[in-house]
Amino acid sequence: MNDSADTTRNNGRLLAWTALVGASALLIIGVKLIYDVPDDVRYRYSTVLFSVVVSALQLAIVLKIAGPSHLRDTFALRRPSWSYKRVALIGVLIVIGMLVLLALLPFLQQGEAEGNGAPFDPDRALPYVLNAIILVIVSPILEELMFRGLGFKLLERYGHATAIVLTGLAFGVFHGQLQQLPALIAFGCAVGYLRSATNSIYPAIATHALLNLIGVALAVTVTT
Fold it and tell me: Residue 110 pLDDT > 70, yes or no?
């Protein structure tokens, strides 16, 4: 009886998590379709406000789905089983692979590379820095808690390989970026492997943050 109740509860949580991922993807796609996103979107306080509100709502829903008990186990908030040097090496290799894939995608898809946005504007540095903090710190923590934390936990009953692949696919869809979808799925699977192999979410968060940090730095230094 208890096993049946646990299965029903986990199925409900998995359905709620799937709905959250789908709704988040639809929100991003809808914004792009309805709103003509300007090149200087990262230099606007409205972007900061939107990101904070959406992130807070997503975190609240993730915590609600996870429930109040066993959060440390659900989100794999524990010391990695690998050495820090090994974690750092694999994390850096994942980031390098992701950057190479992102650079090659426009050619593989026979399309044009996306622009890097507006050139750096020192007069509007504050909103850019605030948006950068969200991208480098808030987003990696939130997204890893959502996918390699809660999502992985809900799917690991089907095997770690299944959890890695499905959370990777969900991670790609979540971002609502068709052109970068293959790279996003690949990255999601790579950090999913890292979470599985180390039995910890922290290496995935650090790797994700490093990738976003490099992206922010390139956006400032490289313009098209």
Answer: no
Within 10 Å of residue 84's Cβ, how many Cβ atoms? Answer: 11
pLDDT tens digits along 16-62: 999 999 999 999 999 888 888 788 899 999 999 999 999 999 999 99
Which residue in this structure is represented by tokens 């390699």? 148
Distances (CA, A) of 7 to 1, 10, 91, 157: 10, 5, 34, 10
Task: Give a three-class secondary structure readout of the chain.
Answer: CHHHHHHHHHHHHHHHHHHHHHHHHHHHHHHHHHCCCCCCHHHCHHHHHHHHHHHHHHHHHHHHHHCCCCHHHHCCCCCCCCCHHHHHHHHHHHHHHHHHHHHHHHHHCCCCCCCCCCCCCHHHHHHHHHHHHHHHHHHHHHHHHHHHHHHHHHHHHHCHHHHHHHHHHHHHHHCCCCCCHHHHHHHHHHHHHHHHHHCCCHHHHHHHHHHHHHHHHHHHHCCC
Domain residue ranges of the chain, discontinuous segments joined by +? 2-221
What average pLDDT score do residues 198-204 get?
98
pTM value is 0.92
CA–CA separation, 212 and 216 (whole Å): 6
Amino acid 37: pLDDT: 79
> What is the chain's length?
224
Tokens standing for residue 15:
């359905």
